[in-house]
Design goal:
single chain; alpha/beta; Glucose Oxidase, domain 1; 3 domains; seven-stranded parallel sheet; 45% helix
Amino acid sequence: MKLSGLLHRTRPELPGLAGTARVDRRTDGLLRRLKSGEIAVLDQIDLDRATADALVAADVAAVVNASPSISGRFPNLGPEILVAAGIMLVDNVGAEAMHAIKDGARIRLDGGVIYAGELRLAAGVLQDADSVADALVEAKSGLAHQLEAFAANTIEFMRQERAMLLDGAGVPPVEVELAGRQVLVVAAGFDAAAELARLKNYIREYRPVLVGVGAGADVLMAAGHTPALIVGDPAEVSNETLTCGADIVVPAFADGHAPGLHRVQDLGAGAVTFPSTANPEDLALLLAAHHDAALVVTVGLSGTMAEFLDRGRAGSNASTFLTRLQLGGVLVDSRVIATLYRSRISAGAILLMIGAAVVAIVAALLVSDAGDAVLAWISHGWGALFEVIRGWFG
């Protein structure tokens, strides 16, 4: 056989899904680097809804998880979202896969096995709709333990933050006026952008104070709104948004150290710190409550028990129950507002009403003396126009 024939012989295409691997143990860092069509390689036990939504938005081709995406502790929401979006999920491939799979390398997924060319790198479980549904059913048995942990952490938060909750001790002042005003708090949660779009009539009519929580500030900017207040880690917010003129509140530890504060200062923007163990979403709500907001509307914040327990972060959610208890009836979910502002008259019904009105007017003109005069005037006008046109053409 000639050498030229060997050189031009095409190699048969290997089976499976191929793409560029993006590897990072820090999920937040990984999400910032992902591009469309790439394969996300992460290590996150109990994949949460927020991460899954971000992976879907990044348009990844597949997700490889070194840890179990559903451990059985509670029915987390992430795997179901990925599978429903048609994203391949290879689960529980082991911690060694984070070293075997190189960032930027081209890998191939065939079933639950990961290859680099024909070299086998790792293997796990290929999840589908049925396997995820079965795992979620089994995971519901772990809810009781998670609720006990949630309750214990809530009691500890109450013990540590009693002065702040009851008297507002440590709540920082902000320049934007909140007292007596309606406040719209936006976090980068599931469907936040679409929910914000459904509130356009409410925002236009009431002009609430716009508060962005972390990346929720960028959601506001993308929707054409400028936040008046930003609460959260500045690392999650773009430079453009941080310098839009909003008041910035950075969460801090009890000793006053606030990670990310230097980034705001480097941009020449001002910021205040809020020492507390509460998560940024609850800090934004507590700011509104202690500054006497008249109404607080939330977009993208956790609203159900499953969402509270999602991510398995019982510690960081310890403030959630007490914060919402403190706001009471002042706190309203955006879906309620959107429902109240939804138009109940379809466009077709409006056109039908206009058509009926036109028919009624014409009928009234036909049976009245005024109608005879109007019709005579219209007829005369058309006759005069006809004579002018005939004159033009000789």
